[in-house]
Amino acid sequence: MSSQHFDSPVDHGAIINVVTWFLVVSTILSFVTRMATKLAVSRRMNGDDVVIFAALLCTIGQSVAVSFQASLNHPIHDLDDSQLRRFQQSAYAADLLYIPSLCLAKLSVALLLRSITPNVLHNRIIFAIGVTTITWATCSELTRAFQCRLPTPWRFLGGTCFNRTAFWNVFGAINILTDSALILLPFAIVWRLQVSMKRKIVIGGCFAARSLVVAATVVQLFYLNRTSDSQNLTLDFWSTAVCTQVVQNISIITACVPYLKPFFESLESGMIRSDDLRRRGMKFPYGYGSGKSAGSTTQGQSLTPSRVAKRSETSHALREIPSEGNFGLGHHANATTVTAARDNWDDGSETSQSKIIRQTTTWTVNAEP
Asked: Which of 93, 242, 289, 313 has an alpha carbon within 20 to 30 A of 278's alpha carbon?
């Protein structure tokens, strides 16, 4: 049956292709918007941009492989041996690109979170999430690469393979757990920011968009288990394939949401100063904006001189003003020093210490007999 029938009982290839390439185009536009906004606002690129670009490349490659599969979305008895081989090889390539695509999208979000919080505990949690994600992806990639007996590891139809359904169930469960962590952690970070509640909601909400990935993964696992015992997998795989494309592309799109202009402006106004804190060597175990001044030491927080931001001082002094006509009292001297101390790390904060003006006045009177 030709794929020109959009939704025939024996061919859903057209649906797979339409959904796949619509999502890919949407993902590319999200990435372009992300980069344009970031360059316009901050005029710099970071490691998370390179990582998300690599994820996009994996997604495009995976989508090409799925399109080859979609062209063979026919009943298994209608396919010859060469077609079955291409179908399985396409599925094999698609899976090997799908895993790193999800991994890189998660790492991009983790790197963004790390760049916006100087909190030691938060950074440790982010590091743990990153290590877990890399370990999960590496083990999954190796397992999927050698799922069936060599020299044909791609031959899952009629070959000797492990339980593929169990593998993807475990893979999906860990995918949900890591995404849930990337959804919840930003709220802990945002809670300590010295910004308005409205901005906190906006910033937290843009990270919460990853809940769509969790929902799509649940649906993906449902259809995967529903078709696990199918004897006509070349035809029945289409529902799982569509869900897989949704999970993969939404993962990248939601990683780009914090860089859309309204959200990114909130990030810039509320969080971006923490990057300067980290470069200066300042660490805040209780998070940015804990209400302590830069020079104070509190329980669990010690700031050594190397961790204190440099101050810029402006002084104006009056020195030794002679008195003409001092009525025999000699002369009077007046010295006044006004110092405006500015902590660079606290610029723009709602509870800024940068507006404090310190004034020291000294009077000296010399009396002559």
From this structure: 313
Q: Is the dihedral of CA 123, 127, 129, 133 positive or negative?
A: positive
Q: Which two tokens stand for residue 94?
A: 């698609």
- Answer whether 79's CB lies under 8 Å from 234's CB: yes
Angle (nearest 5°) at CA 287 between 284 and 291: 90
Residue 300: Cβ within 10 Å count: 9
102-161 confidence digits (pLDDT tens): 999 999 999 988 888 888 899 999 999 999 999 999 999 999 999 888 888 988 887 678
What residues form DSSP beta bridges with 357? 340
pLDDT tens per residue across span 188-240: 888 777 777 877 787 788 888 899 999 999 999 999 999 888 888 888 889 99
Distances, alpha carbon 347 to alpha carbons 112, 193, 276, 340, 355, in Å: 22, 14, 11, 14, 10
What pLDDT is stored for residue 369 in this prediction? 53
Enter the tokens of residue 264: 């990114």
- Between CA 223 and CA 245 the distance in angstroms is 13
For residues 263 and 240, the model is more confident at 240
Say how far apart CA 274 and CA 346 lie, in whole Å: 10
> What are 149-157's contacts with CB under 8 Å, separation 24+?
153/92, 154/88, 154/89, 154/91, 154/92, 155/85, 155/88, 156/88, 156/91, 156/92, 157/76, 157/84, 157/87, 157/88, 157/233, 157/234
Tokens of 129: 């999430």
Q: What is the pLDDT of residues 45-83, one digit of tens each?
A: 888 999 999 999 999 999 999 999 998 888 888 888 899
Q: What is the DSSP letter of 351?
A: T
Q: What angle in degrees, to the nearest 10, is found between the helix axes of 261-270 and 197-208? A: 120
pLDDT over threshold 60, residue 2: no
Of the candidates 44, 189, 169, the one whose C-alpha atom is nearest the C-alpha of residue 129 is: 189
In whole angstroms, give the CA distance from residue 245 to residue 243.
5
